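Q: Structure tokens for this one, please.
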Amino acid sequence: MIDPPLRDLLLEGGRPRFAGLRLISDVHGQAAAFGAAVADAAERDLAVLQLGDLIDRGPSSDGAARIALDLIATRRGLFVVGNHDDKLRRAVKGNPVRIGANLRRSLEQLERADLAQRFAEAVAAAPLWLRCGRTLFVHGAFGPGMFDQPAPVNYSHPTTTKLPLAHLALYGETSGVLDADGEPTRTYGWVDQIPAGHTVYVGHDIVRPGEVTVLDGQLGGRAVCLDTGAWLDGRVSWLDLDTAALGIDGESVARSS
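A: Here is the predicted structure, written as tokens:
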């Protein structure tokens, strides 16, 4: 089982279009590093799946958005929606959102580049999660049921009571307590709900700065956390999965630029 957007990217007539898939998480406006990672993926015959939060914090949200849009247009990549991307979508749509300094700068950059509407529409069309056999790709966190159903469309602004799986996909799991920087404290109880033999690739939260981190769950599943803090040091990390690892032909290799 492979969700249609990922199948259309990776397969043609049932045969692989690429040697594998490069996962890139939480670019946060680091367009130069993102572009270098994408160019290197092309040289290695890899498609690209970006795990959300393309914008905000870094120097060039418009540049990062343009690269993501080009990947889609040329059938070389996709992205799943991150909470920063979705907040911009809602702002462009005219929904009431709190616009802080990061989002204001992203909106200004995208509007100057005449990309705001186009990127917002791409976010609205992008999936909240993607399934490929026993593998799932999502920005924030896994919830039971994600392997059993495709991501919702036209989800508006999900909450824990309204579309709880969509809320987990965007915002992850939190303790309800703010940290010293005023940010929600992220928790990982959801890892223990991943079924045995299944792997969930996520971004959203820096578990260990500069490191791709693997967490093993009590049921025998595992989470691979790819957010290594691009907005802190300007580097973009990635993980390469070959077709065997994706179950469409295994090993994976982590690197950063």
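A few notes: The mean pLDDT is 92. The domain at 4-256 is CATH 3.60.21.10 (Purple Acid Phosphatase; chain A, domain 2).
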